[in-house]
Sequence to fold (144 residues):
Amino acid sequence: MIIIKQTINRPRISKPKIERLASFVLDYKNKKDSSISFSFVGNSFILKLNKKYFSKNCPTDVISFPLADTKDPFNFLGEIIISLEEVNKNAKKYKNSFVLELYLCVIHGILHLFGYKDKPKKEYNKMIKEQELILAKAVKSKIV
Fold:
């Protein structure tokens, strides 16, 4: 099950496409019966989380909170928070569409739930390679 909550009005996201992409990633990682919750927020909210949990005084695009209890009867993997403002900034910075950047953040957040890390650089590169592979397969399969 994929749960989606959007707390800011702009830009609007396509919840069905996010659900299909997230389900595709879970299936690809052999966790198709798992659940994830997504919250699409603004920078002020994600900044508070980044300060509280990571001692960083800046907004970020995606934060993942894996569920520690592996005996969860609902097979809930965790919560992913995505700042739509940061996604928009990154889309401009990397000359991607907003939608492409959003899909990358969705995949990136899910990979964090599976234990992928942003540091050290070797781990980050491994994560980016997996993220791009999954997105390419999702596009090829017309999931998104």
